[in-house]
Design brief:
With 299 residues, the chain is mostly helical. The chain folds into two domains: 2-114, no CATH class; 145-265. It contains 13 helices and no strands. The longest helix is centred in the middle third of the chain and has 49 residues, at 116-164.
Length: 299
Amino acid sequence: MKLVLICLVAACSLLIGWLILLGRSLPAIFGTYAKKLDQDALKNSLIVEPFKRLMERWRIFEQFSLPLGILHTQQMILEGADWSYDETKALTAKYAGAGYLACMCSVWFSVITAEALLLVIGLVLAVVLAIKPYIDAKSKVVKRKNQIILALPDMLSRLQLLVGAGENLQRAFIKIAFSSQRSAHSAQACTSEALVKEWRLAAQALQNGQSFSNALERFNRNCAVQEVSIFTTVLLLNYKRGGDQLVLALRELSYSLWERRKSIARMRGEEASSKLVFPLVGILLILIVLIAAPAIMIM
């Protein structure tokens, strides 16, 4: 009985706290967005903005400025340079608010069912949702980096063929961008989507009159991958030379990138094989139980 009363007090406190965050704007929120059925705007008004104001008032963003800055850098890599710091704050507030609401719902379910385990689940879920954007951003950045490294040797091979056939480096760069755009729905496009996007933006900048060095520097900055930095450096150093020296430099770079691609493919294979260990162990345990159970029952 005491546990139910404690959970009831906690549930009411969480609900009252959320209503206080919403303030007097709650009737206007439902009156405005219930007619339009704009779920994104409703979510923004009910979760993002209230918790963002709360975190700014309590200076949580200032206290956790280091992890927030890392998250902002990762989001800029994923979403582009136009991603603002305010959007990073809104993203953090969104998941913090979702964790708060999940905890509140779990506490209410704990009151209704008189089950203490739901209270623990709610607390764990709140913590997981609060740190989810940091974990997701890091994994997405690593995945994007691997995709770019895997796709870069193919793009370099095309560039090497065009330059070796006598094509100008800048025109070859643009031609590869739009040939990749036409094949964006092919089976290999999903593995090189990030690189194709940045390559196409650089090609469009070249068509708009931007210098080759500036376009490549922006391409390198947006990709944020060491292999791309080496690639752009080789192109810029050999851009004015052209001829056999450029083809030779591209050939040497292509060899190192293909080796890097092989190492990543090998690492992915090892990760896939290690992930299969757990299902196999589970199947083995089930088989042991199925075989041993009849023998134990006979004994």
